[in-house]
Specification:
Chain A: This is ABC transporter ATP-binding protein. Chain A: Keywords: ATP-binding, Nucleotide-binding, Transport. Chain A: It comes from Microbispora triticiradicis. Chain A: One of its GO terms (molecular function) is ATP binding. Chain A: Residues 21-251 form the ABC transporter domain. The complex is a heterodimer of chains A (375) and B (323). With 375 residues, chain A is an alpha+beta fold. Chain A has two domains: 2-94 and 169-249, Rossmann fold (3-Layer(aba) Sandwich); 253-372, Nucleic acid-binding proteins (OB fold (Dihydrolipoamide Acetyltransferase, E2P)), CATH 2.40.50.140. Chain A contains nine helices and 20 strands. Chain A has a six-stranded mixed sheet with strand order 6-7-8-3-9-10, sandwiched between helices. Chain A has a five-stranded antiparallel sheet with strand order 13-12-11-14-20. Chain A has a five-stranded antiparallel sheet with strand order 15-19-16-17-18, with no helix packed on it. In chain A, helix 3 (109-119) packs across helix 4 (124-137) and helix 3 (109-119) runs parallel beside helix 5. Chain A starts with a helix and ends with a strand. Chain B has 323 residues and is an all-alpha fold. Chain B has a single domain (2-315), classed as MetI-like (MetI-like fold, Orthogonal Bundle). Chain B has 16 helices and no strands. The longest helix of chain B is centred in the middle third of the chain and has 34 residues, at 92-125. The two termini of chain B are 15 Å apart. The chains are: A alpha+beta (375), B mainly alpha (323). Chain A binds chain B through residues 1, 67-69, 89-96, 98-100, 102-106, 115-116, 119-120, 163, 167, 173, and chain B through 211, 213-214, 216-225, 227, 231-232, 235-236.
């Protein structure tokens, strides 16, 4: 570790120092609950992986297992080919950013950032330059002599980040690092963290419940629910091609239609008592399926309007709410079965309806996604 | 923390026969009463109810502590004259007494912190069941009468007591009894026994307030367990050590019963000196002056410490900054 810390340059141009991380069959049981239930994942060097999930999904437990704060009941953690499952925390050589920063309140900013170097035996006279470089990397050059208490939340977060990267760990763990920041700052920090991790070639495992953050920052997302890995893929895959209802519901707003798909002439159709959902693709006979339609794919038309094309899905409903959200507006439409459908329109265009109006919702079959087998 | 805030006024009154000392003990009750009321008033700014609820306590504090203390001050100046004070300052006996008292209080404080820290640490880090056990064990000693405990130590430390019997008859290590009773050693033992809970509770509260993630951060950055302790836990627990230490020190300064029953004739601590003035030398004015000086000394120690850790922390009430 000492060598990586002193030899690697400021921009990581010596090649990717990021680690390859393999998790195999990780299980952690607390009492009756399987907090982490047979999770296997591989993170490639330099990749930014987000563990995404609601609270209780096991994402934090999994991160703590990787860090070594929690022992897994089963499974292996292999970093760069070395099984670290039994290695004590202080020998794992991992960098970590904590949710509440976890800065040492009794030490100066510089001493905080120097701490990992000190623990790794970097000589005192070499530390100052590395500390200053790390602080500059997070735009806090010259803040070294201050106390963490004098800094704002965003600045403290930057110090925590500098402290986590100063010793050039091959793996950086982040536990909801932006949870305590306000929205504007959070978005700025997302970009910042991403830039840093790319420049340094760090392998990052980030934990969040914020799907936007996951979509913005990650190379890969691992969606967890109830301790199990639901889906692992690129943000595009998770958003565009959810493999399960859980994934479709968690990432972005979505309208789900559940039912039997039947062939009707050249088309296949999911027939509902109150409307027809055209399903793209060539159907091999009848099957159960869930059709996912994203709110932005839906157009609102006045009731009785002619279908804009023949090959379009149509669904009647009554507008129940119209929510202005700046760059877009969210319209809630109550379908015939009482379920609420979400539609996103551009806020600039005039809405052809107001609350209480009967409307018809239309969308192109190509814009929806089918989850087969789910019923 | 409410438990701690109530403890001083209770346990620091050494007994009914030591009324001048009780007067000076009013400080602890002082701090907890109005202090708690102020905190409440701030939280419910528009409610007069809570400030009203503090009124009976305030009346009691005034009647039981402020008025007697005022009487003591007046007496020290008028019975027969302010010359009481010069009598004290010119008395080598009293000066010796002050030095002995300070030394005793310091030793007791250090011992309490040394013994109390590991205990508080274990309490802060153990699971709920173990923590409850340790807490009850601590408080059991606390809930036992001071007199009973002190007499018990007499029996234990006597020349024919359990310790000496064990050393001589069972282990055969000594031939003659080791004199422990009526020595400073016996006083230290008895005082540490009485005052340890204050140190433990203050340390425990401080240790519990340390964010576990801060220690985890140190760990993950490569610090072995003992370095985590030395570089993070220990420095962050120091305010608790100061708070507990000051509390123990201040309480030890005015102690009467324990030194009286366990101590020797050579060390006359301030509490005993006051009693002597009143009961033996029949000079209540000089005794009152001593009590006033003791009170002033205690206030000075508290004031000095408050500059570093905040008075609320020492008295165990949340008057200071919240984390």
């Amino acid at each position: 570790m000492t060598e990586t810390a002193t030899q690697a340059g400021p921009t990581g141009q010596e090649g990717s120092p990021g680690a390859r991380v393999e998790l195999t069959g990780i299980v952690k049981v607390y009492g009756d609950t399987r907090a982490v239930d047979d999770v296997s994942l591989t993170v490639e060097p330099g990749q930014f992986l987000t563990l995404l999930g609601a609270s209780g999904s096991g994402k934090t437990t999994l991160l703590r297992i990787i860090a070594g704060f929690v022992d897994a009941d089963e499974g292996r953690i292999v970093v760069n080919g070395r099984d670290i499952s039994q290695v004590p925390v202080h020998q794992r050589g991992i960098g970590m950013v904590f949710q509440n920063y976890a800065l040492f309140p009794h030490l100066s900013v510089a001493a905080n950032v120097a701490f990992p170097l000190e623990m790794r035996g970097v000589r005192r006279r070499d530390r100052a330059a590395l500390v200053e470089r790390a602080l500059e990397a997070v735009h806090l050059g010259g803040y070294g002599r201050r106390s963490p208490k004098e800094l704002s939340g965003g600045q403290q977060q930057r110090v925590a980040l500098a402290r986590a990267i100063v010793a050039r760990p091959p793996l950086l763990l982040m536990d909801e690092p932006l949870g305590a920041l306000d929205r504007r700052l959070r978005e700025a920090m997302q970009i910042e963290i991403r830039r840093l991790s790319r420049e340094l070639g760090l392998t990052v495992i980030n934990v969040t419940h914020d799907q936007e953050e996951a979509l913005t920052m990650s190379d890969r997302i691992a969606l967890l629910a109830g301790g199990r890995l639901v889906q692992h893929g690129t943000p595009e895959e998770l958003y565009g091609l959810p493999e399960s209802e859980v994934a479709a519901r968690f990432l972005g707003e979505s309208n789900l239609f559940r039912g039997r798909v039947r062939g009707e002439g050249t088309q296949s159709v999911l027939a509902l008592p109150y409307g027809r959902v055209l399903v793209p693709g060539d159907p091999p006979g009848e099957r159960e399926a869930v059709v996912v339609v994203r709110p932005s794919a839906i157009r609102i038309r006045p009731a009785g309007a002619e279908p804009s094309t023949a090959a379009v899905s149509r669904m009647p409903g009554v507008v129940s709410a119209d929510i202005y959200a700046g760059d877009s507006r969210k319209v809630l439409v109550e379908g015939a079965d009482g379920a609420e459908l979400v539609v996103r329109c551009e806020s600039g265009a005039p809405l052809p309806c107001s609350v209480g109006d009967e409307v018809v919702l239309e969308w192109d079959p190509g814009s929806c996604h089918i989850i087969p087998g789910a019923a | 923390m409410s438990a701690l805030s109530q403890i001083p006024s209770r346990a620091s009154s050494p007994g009914p026969q030591a009324s001048p000392v009780t007067g000076s003990d009013g400080r602890a009750g002082h701090g907890a009463g109005p202090g708690g009321g102020a905190a409440r008033a701030r939280r419910f700014p528009r409610s007069d109810f809570w400030s009203g609820a503090g009124l009976p306590g305030l009346v009691f504090v005034v009647a039981a502590f402020v008025v007697p203390m005022a009487v003591v001050v007046v007496k020290s100046l008028t019975d027969p004259s302010p010359a009481n004070y010069s009598a004290i300052f010119t008395s080598s006996v009293y000066q010796r007494s002050v030095v002995d008292t300070l030394q005793m209080a310091l030793v007791v404080t250090v011992l309490c912190l040394l013994v109390g820290y590991p205990y508080a640490y274990a309490m802060a880090r153990s699971g709920t069941a173990m923590r409850t056990f340790l807490m009850v064990a601590l408080m059991l000693a606390f809930w036992t009468s001071l007199l009973v405990r002190t007499y018990a130590w007499q029996i234990v430390l006597n020349d024919t007591g359990i310790v000496n019997t064990a050393l001589r008859d069972w282990l055969g290590l000594t031939s003659a009894p080791i004199h422990m009773i009526r020595t400073p050693f016996a006083v230290y033992v008895g005082m540490v026994h009485v005052l340890l809970p204050y140190a433990v509770l203050a340390l425990f509260a401080q240790l519990r307030s340390i964010d576990p993630d801060v220690e985890r951060a140190a760990q993950v950055m490569g610090a072995r367990p003992w370095r985590v302790f030395a570089r993070v836990t220990l420095p962050l627990s120091l305010p608790g050590a100061v708070a507990g230490g000051v509390l123990v020190f201040v309480l030890a300064l005015g102690f009467y019963i324990t030194p009286q029953l366990l101590g020797g004739a050579r060390q006359v601590y301030v509490g005993q000196a006051i009693m002597q003035q009143i009961e033996q030398f029949l000079k209540p004015g000089v005794g009152a002056a001593m009590a006033v000086l003791l009170f002033v000394a205690v206030l000075a120690v508290l004031g000095l410490a408050a500059r570093f850790v905040g008075l609320g922390k020492i008295l165990g009430v949340g008057m200071g900054r919240r984390r």
